[in-house]
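Q: For a teaching session next week I want to show students how multiple molecules come together into a single three-dimensional assembly. I've collected the sequence lines for a complex. Could you give me the predicted C-alpha cells for the whole thing so I can convert them for display?
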Amino acid sequence: MSIRLENIAKHYGPRARALSPIDLDIREGELIGLLGPSGSGKTTLLRIMAGLEQPDPAPAGRIQFGERDVTRVHVRDRRIGFVFQHYALFRHMSVYDNVAFGLTVLPRRERPSSGEIRARVHRLLEMVQLEQLATRYPAQLSGGQQQRVSLARALALRPEVLLLDEPFGALDAKVRQELRRWLRHLHDELGFTSVFVTHDQEEALELSDRVAVMSNGRIEQIDTPEALYRAPANRFVFEFLGDVNHLEGEVREGVLTCGEARLAVDMPDGAAELLMRPHELSLAPAPSAEAHLPMTVTAVSPVGAEVRVELAADWLAEPWLATVRHADFEHLALARGKRLYALPRRWHRFDDQGARPAARPRLATAD
Amino acid sequence: MQRIGDAPALRRLLIGAAVALSALFLLLPLVAIFAQAFSQGLGTFWVNVSDTYTLAAIGLTLFITALTIPINLVFGVMLAWLVTRFAFPGRRLLQTLIDIPFAISPVVAGLVYLLLYGRNGWLGGWLDAHDIQLMFAWPGILMVTVFVTCPFVARELIPLMQAQGSREEEAAVTLGASGFTLFRRVTLPNIRWALLYGVILTNARAVGEFGAVSVVSGAIRGETNTLPLHVELLYQDYNTVGAFASAALLALIALFTLAAKAGLEWRAARREALA
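A: Of course. Below is the structure for the complete assembly, covering every listed component.
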C-alpha cells in the first residue's frame, strides 16, 4: 500500500519544533529508510505515520494509505505493523501468546477460530525460526530472538504497512547483518510497504530502496542509495553519509593555500572549503605539480578490503582519513610516523546555504 | 580477604542490637496483648469478643474496610495511570498532592472533614436541609478512611509504571487492542503484584485507623464505633480484659496482613529468580 504524507508538521510545545511541514511519497511495496542523527525527527515522523503521535492540527496535514485518508484514524484501526526499538514484547506472555495477541483481540466476528489462530501463529514462528521457543518468556530470549518475535507479532495481522523504529539498534553487529538480510527477504516475499528508522548510514544504504536523509525536522534529500552517495543534494547529506576530509583555505589565482599546503583549483579568489571522501585521496612519496599536501601517518588499520590510514598535519585542524589498497600499503611501506603527500583525485564543494553543490566535483590530474 | 564494614565484632553488635530492640518494642507488646486478653481464661476472652457491641464494632470495621479497598483500588489505578501515561501541566503538583494524607496528622484530616461536612460546617447547612447526615455516621467514617489510605495504591503503582513505560501498551494498540482489552491483558498483569501489595497496605491502615475516625465517628456504641475506638472505650471503662481482647483481634488482623505481604514478597522474589 502506498503512503502519502502532505504537510505534516509537529511541535512539542510552542518552541520545540520536531518536524517542519513535510511531504513524503512512498510507493507500494517500497522499503524506505529514514536516516538521520538523533533529534532529527525521524522517529517522530514514523510514529505519526503509525498514529502513535498526532501531527500539528494547523497547518492541516494529510496522511493517506493508498486511497484511504487515515489522518484522523486511530492507531488501532490503521492496520499497520509496528516494530519497536526495544521490542516491547509483553513480558508476562509466552512467545506464542505474544505472536497470537493481535489475532485474539480481533472483534469476535473477524476473529479466526482458535484452531486457525494456532496454525497461523505456528506458521509465523516457523517463518522466524522460533518454533521450538514458543513456550519461553521474552526475558529468556536473546536480543535477536526477541526482535524476531516482535516482527512475527507485527506481521500476524498481515499488515500492508510495516513500520520499524531502529529495529536493529540494540543488537550486536553480526546479528544485525543477519536480521537485515532476513528483513529484506521477508519484505520481498510478502510484498508489504516498509519504513524503518535508523541512525546507521550503512544500514540505511544497504537495506533501502530509497533513503530519506533527515536533519532538524526536515527531509534533506530522498533518493536511491546510489544517487544519494553520488549526488548529495547538500553538505549535510554528504557529511552524514560517510567519512569526510575537510580542506579550508584561501584561493588566489587558482591556488588554494592553507599553511604550507597548496592545491591547484579552478575557482574564483576568496575563502573556500573542499570536502573529500577517504577513497578520493591517494598517497604518494612526493608531491605533484597540482598538489602539495604534506602529511604524517598517525594510525594504520589494515583490517578489511582496504587499509584505513589516519593522517595529520600542522596545517589541519582535524586529521584526515584515507583508504588505500593493500598493494599500495605495502608499496608505500606505510607505518605510523611516515611522512608523505596526499593527492586528491576528486573533491566536492557546497555553498553555506547548503542547496546544490556550488561546483561539480572535478578531476585533478594527480597520477 | 575481609570486606569493608565486615568486622565480626561489629556485625555481632549490630545484629544483637537489632534483635534486642525488635524484641523489646515489637515482640514484647504483641505478647503482652495476647497475655492480657487471655489472662482470665479462654471463657472470659470469648465472652468479651462475642459481646454485642464488640461484634458491632468488628462488623463496622470490616464494612468500612470492604468499601475503602475497592474505592482506593479504582482511584489509585486511575491516578497512577494519569500521572505516568499523560503529560499535562500540573502533573508534578498532582504527584505531590497524592502525598498529603501521609503528610498531615489523621486528627487534622478528621477535623477538616468535620469543618466541611459537619452540622455547622460549610456544606453542613445544605446537607442538613436535604436530610443527609455524613458526620457521626458511617459515611463520615468511610470518607476519612478513604482519605487517609488513598496514597497507598497509587504510591505503589507510580514508580513501577514509570519504570515499565508505555511501550507494551503502545504495542498492544498497534495490534488493535481496545482500551479495556489493553488494560485487562497488558497493563493489569504487569502491575498486579504492586496492586495487591497496595491493597494489603490499604487494608492494614483502614482496619487500624484511629485518629481521623475518632473525630468524625462520635463513637456511638453499636452504631459508629469501630474496633480501634472500641478498644479505647473499653479501656476507659476499666474493662482491661475486654479492651485487650478486642486489641488481640486487631493484632490478629495485622498479623494476617503481614503474613500475606511476606508471602507475596517471597513469591515475587522467586519469580524474579526464575526469570
